């Protein structure tokens, strides 16, 4: 292992030789298939992870269920105290974990650390929430009666997370689940097992110190079989899945068929709209970060850019200059802004989209090529790309299909209504079966309706944008890019992004079961609606 990698792993006590256990249910184990964690920057194998065998997955589920049976009785503010300790433990390892995210996922250091910060933030949020997960008292129509709406824990929550946010998205789910009194079982992306092992180790220490079962926050690394076991288990009332629309559809249907609950976060084909009155000194860097940040691999990344005719040429020229000046580099180096794509499959999706752009004679303003020279040829480095397709028919594949890569397609509009129509014109569900069935579908998210942003200083535009005829996405920003949401608001999208909500706002309400409880304090037993049933 290179010293670059071994330094990052050692700082988190991950073995730098031999095999690493990828299952935790109170004990570390793993006797299933070996999964390799590959560094996107250098191509080196960072670790060989022993994943969960089918039997180990079953045992881990069983242990998680048992852990839930005791954990649910811990008063919510006590659960908050556990989260406060998890928060502190994460914060103590913020830099180290951030570096591991950069090493294994490939995002740049400031974003790797930012992701750990997001986990810390949601822990803070959930500590407060642990004293505020209130039900309510409803007025009864019957004398001497009260009706309570009571939240109780749900049970085991399975969290299936994606490669692009290997720490934060689990954090959102863990923090709300734990505050609500649930136990979680985590199946991370098969390509980022080390991030999940490091996070689980940190949480396990806290649970141990508090004499709580480790399976309150269990981990099962593995592939499709492990995911299917969790999704199909009748002992898992809630499955929270982040990933492609293709797999999301399968998960959603499987969980619904057994009347389980599901939260889906399936990416987004997000747009930014720039009006002529916008403050360009904000809009240009905002679109730049939205489209190139994380090498275009956020669910919230800007993929479509709609420019008002009056400013389009100048805007594209300035944006192109920024694109041309960004340098690839080791994501662990402090001054790098462009890291690699996560894996080879992602690069081939980039290549495929560039080919498609060429075949439809789109104007490619910059990018369109991989970095083939050393040292970048060892990793998955691509040039961020701006293209202007000839067609502005949003049903055209180039607009209606989201490519999970740093490719930004631009179009020119004349009035805001048109741009909003384009923003909303992405299909409710993807109809392109060739995309959905492609083996690359894992990295071709086709989901629609997650994030959107409008750049303007005119309050009338803002009114339109936020109102009933405005953006139909789950995230509707003004003078702020499509990506980089804070944890305080609920996070999620509409249409084929899945409608679920995670993180802040009212998202916690999905992690509990609600009971309506009528209590009769009186000496009479009147029936509701005045029904008379006496002999
Ligand atoms: C994701 O890409 O799955 O809003 C999550 C953002 C981040 C989370 C993205 N806070 O870009």
UniProtKB/TrEMBL annotation:
UniProt xrefs under InterPro entries: Ald_DH/histidinol_DH, Ald_DH_C, Ald_DH_CS_GLU, Ald_DH_N, Aldehyde_DH_dom, ALDH7A1-like
Active-site residues annotated for this sequence: 265
Matching CDD domains: ALDH_F7_AASADH
Cited SUPFAM superfamilies: ALDH-like
Every Aldehyde dehydrogenase domain range: 33-427, 446-514
Top class in the EC scheme: oxidoreductase
Gene3D superfamilies, sorted: Aldehyde Dehydrogenase, Chain A, domain 1, Aldehyde Dehydrogenase, Chain A, domain 2
Family statement drawn from the similarity comment of this UniProt entry: Belongs to the aldehyde dehydrogenase family.
EC number(s) stated in the UniProt entry for this protein: 1.2.1.3
Membrane-crossing segments per the record: none
Keywords: NAD, Oxidoreductase
Source lineage: Eukaryota, Fungi, Dikarya, Basidiomycota, Agaricomycotina
Record's subunit section: Homotetramer.
Listed name of the protein: aldehyde dehydrogenase (NAD(+))
Organism of provenance: Marasmius crinis-equi
